[in-house]
Structure formats: structure tokens, C-alpha cells
Design goal:
136 residues, 3 helices, 4 strands, alpha+beta
């Protein structure tokens, strides 16, 4: 499990990456203003587990074999990670899949609400027509 916090130009964003059995799941959490250490700790202790358990979309990840890495190379890799945005392309793919899934769910829900509203409107129209004809 990896949490990366970065500034995307407007907000401070945390990207949670969960890697299990060659599959990667990712979630995005918007902190808003620059988060203090206490706020990040609060997120890790309470909200991160709920966010991680709610993930369903997975992306296959190529696992690299663990080789012994020289300390200088390790230091360069750490510095490069700090300079970069911090979100891997696999994580971006997983975020995109999760976003599309939520979009489809929202579309289905709003369509269902719209159909229910139209059915109610039709029912009222039928009742009004029956009221008009009553007694003639």
C-alpha cells in the first residue's frame, strides 16, 4: 500500500495505490489546502482503510524482479520520485477505470430517477383526466 501526496496545480491530492497479487487498485483523495502532518495521519488512521476497501477496478501490473540495488542508485531513484508527480501510469489507469465505473453507476441511477419522475407525472395526468370525466 502506497500513499502519495502531491499538488496538482489547484489542490493537494493523495493517491492511494494498493498492489495485491500482480493487480493494482488506486484511489484519489482530495485534501484541498496543503495538509498538515496531523491531517495526513488522521487520513491514514481512519479514512484510508475505508477508501482502500471500496476499490473494485484493477489493472494488471508487470512485477519487476527484486535485484540488489546500489545505495547511490537507490538515492537517485528516491530523488526522482520526489521530483515527479508521484502517480504511476498504472495508478492513473486504475483511477480512470474507477472513475468510469462510478460514472456508469451515476448514469444508471439518474436514468432510473428520471423514469420514476416521468411515471409519476403520467400517473398524475391520468388521475386528472379521470377527475375531469367523473360525473358526465
Amino acid at each position: 500500500m502506497k500513499l502519495t501526496v502531491y499538488h496538482d496545480g489547484q489542490y493537494w491530492v493523495g493517491v492511494l495505490e494498493v498492489q495485491e497479487q500482480g493487480k493494482l487498485k488506486a484511489a484519489r483523495y482530495i485534501f484541498g489546502t496543503e495538509p498538515q502532518d496531523e491531517e495526513i495521519l488522521q487520513f491514514v488512521r481512519h479514512e484510508m482503510w475505508d477508501l482502500a476497501s471500496g476499490l473494485s477496478q484493477e489493472v494488471a501490473v508487470k512485477l519487476s524482479e527484486a535485484k540488489k540495488v546500489s545505495p547511490k542508485r537507490l538515492a537517485r531513484q528516491a530523488a526522482a520520485e520526489l521530483r515527479g508527480k508521484g502517480v504511476s501510469s498504472y495508478a492513473q489507469d486504475a483511477l480512470q477505470l474507477e472513475y468510469e465505473k462510478r460514472k456508469r453507476e451515476k448514469q444508471a441511477h439518474s436514468k432510473q430517477q428520471q423514469e420514476a419522475a416521468l411515471a409519476r407525472k403520467r400517473e398524475l395526468k391520468v388521475l386528472k383526466a379521470k377527475e375531469k370525466h367523473r360525473g358526465h
